Amino acid sequence: MHFKTGHIRHLTGWITGLCLFFAAGIVGAAEMTPAETAARLQGSYDKISSMSADFRQMTSMKMSRRTRHGAGTVVFQKPGRMRWDYSNPDHQVLVCDGHTFYMYFAKEKQMMVVSAEEYLKSDVTYSFFAGTGNILRDFDVFPPDEDVKKAEPAEDGSSDTEKPQDGKSIIIKLVPRNSHPQIDYIHVWTEDSTFLTDRIRIVDQFGSVTDIFFTNIKVDQEIPSGRFTFTPPPGTEVIEQ
User: Fold this and answer.
1) 100 or 26: which carries more pLDDT confidence?
2) Per the domain annotation, does 2 fall within a domain?
3) Any domain includes 192
4) Which CATH number belongs to the domain containing residue 192 in this structure?
5) pLDDT at 126 over 70
6) Residue 96 resides in a domain
């Protein structure tokens, strides 16, 4: 997802994807209800302290045939620290040190600075990232929509049925219990063999759909504290909000 005209609107969607991603454990998934799956995701997420992964994403806008693609790496560490590095299509860096968000856009030579505390107070999605959220408390949980269960394009252009998988995916739908300005609902794909989430789909109030695919997932590894700091190049315009 690109952070140009819609920087802040899209930010929370990415944070949601990140926070729902931290789920690990092995269970009898085939017999679980959506609510039981969500509860297990929450319980596993609470036990994880850090994660890193590669990601690819596709965003399609309503009333537009254009699909935007992005790729890079993501790192997360509790409490409240994260970093997204975009290598494609443009160099972008999104960093949170637990207190402040720094969003750097190389093409525009700009860096936006936003208080993390404000998101913690007002955004249910950021509360997951900060370690204070709860899936069952903040979302209503449903089975996936019928169209989502059908084969559809994967990140490489193939269908889901053609995409190599180590196990069967369980899909649940999450709808914010309180009206959310950025998120209409979310679908989460979870591997039943590992209970690691390797895909999420975020649908916003404007009908935009963002699919995020995670690979090379690593959890609970040591992450240097310097990963969560960023100094922009000289000449960068800094915009504080």
Assistant:
1) 100
2) no
3) yes
4) 2.50.20.10
5) no
6) yes
Most confident of 2-11, 104-113, 147-156: 104-113
Q: How far does the chain reach from its first CA to its final CA, in angstroms? A: 21
Q: How far apart are CA 93 and CA 232, in angstroms?
A: 10
Q: How large is the average pLDDT for residues 37-50?
A: 81
Strand partners, 88: 71
Domain that holds residue 182: 7-240
Of 212, 213, 204, 182, residue with least CA distance to 1? 212
CB-count exposure of residue 179 (10 Å: 0-12, 13-18, 19+):
exposed
Q: Is residue 156 part of a domain?
A: yes
The torsion angles phi and psi of 143, rounded to 5 degrees, stand at: -65, 160
pLDDT of 193-230, one tens digit each?
A: 666 778 889 898 888 898 999 999 898 899 998 999 99
Q: What is the pTM of this model?
A: 0.78
Q: Is 5 buried (19+), middle (13-18) or exposed (0-12) by CB count in 10 A? A: exposed
Domain tally for the chain? 1
pLDDT beyond 90 at 66: no
